[in-house]
Amino acid sequence: MKASDEFQAPGLDLFSFPPLWPGAPYWLTKPTLMAVVGAVLICVLMWAAFAKPKLVPRGLQNIAELGYVFIREHAARPFLGKDADSWMGLLLSIFFLTWIWNLMGVLPFVQLPVSSFLAFPAVIAFSVYVIKIYVGVREQGARDYVGNLIPRGLPKVAYVLLVPLELLQNFVTSLFTHMLRLAANMFAGHLILAFFSAVGFWFLFERPTLLGVPVGVLGVVMAIVMTGFEMFIQFLQAYLFVLLTAMFIGASLNPKH
Is residue 162 included in any domain, yes or no? Predict the structure, then answer.
């Protein structure tokens, strides 16, 4: 049997895109275009929802306000307390932008979760990282900001190991955890959907056989089920991304120690 006659599972080539046209800059690819489209779309939708707000919200304003209340009550207030309202513009923007980037993975003709490309969540995560440090230094002073990261009242010998770990966690690993959690989940979800879709197409259309058709049907069913599950994960990861944002900023505003 020839290699072309064998089923090939989707691989990393799903995430490889050439420039949009010959001679275009190397970075001007479909993911970049979709990232910009998502950002513009969120700006347009938010403007349409809140440019002329009604006392009794309807339609788009109602949906946007539901999102506002959800983020305020379940992300901002638990970590930012009395400062929650002043940070809602940033948190809401991050939530909706990340969510629409995630949802692009299941949109027909797009089928590309922008957040699966590490560069895009990395830009947001790094921006939050800078804000976190700036706010911490502004509110506490540089010395107290660093000092408040370290728990107190422990045996002195514990600090030999604890101080480097706390500094590493707050100034290095927190940044990578923030962006990698989102990108890795979207990357894996896209691969899973592509796999089951490819199984269905291959065994039902490309190489239908008596034994292969049931496998193809199973692939289609799993693709449908996993699409629904992936949409839930896309929402959940957008929420967790903004939850971590609120947690990092809140820790700088209101140190525990």
Answer: yes
Question: How many domains does the chain fold into?
Answer: 1
Domain with 132, as residue range(s), is 16-253
Distance, CA of 52 to CA of 182 (rounded, Å): 34
Phi and psi at residue 190, to the nearest 5°: -65, -40
CB 203 within 8 A of CB 212: yes
Q: Judge whether 45 and 60 are in contact, CB under 8 Å.
A: yes
Categorize the per-residue pLDDT at 152 as very low, low, confident or very high, splitting at 50, 70 and 90: confident
DSSP for 134-187, written as a single string: HHHHHHH-HHHHHHTTS--SS-HHHHHHHHHHHHHIIIIIHHHHHHHHHHHHHH
Look-up: residue for tokens 């990393």?
Answer: 12
What is the distance between the alpha carbons of residues 180 and 192, in angstroms, rounded to a whole number?
18
Give every CB contact of residue 128 below 8 A, 6+ residues apart in sequence: 94, 178, 245, 248, 249
| Global pTM value | 0.90
Q: Identify whether 6 is part of a domain.
A: no
193, part of any domain: yes
- pLDDT digit string, tens, across residues 95-117: 999 999 999 999 988 999 999 99
Q: What six digits make up the tokens of 96? A: 């909706």
> Nearest 5°: CA angle at 171, between 168 and 174?
85
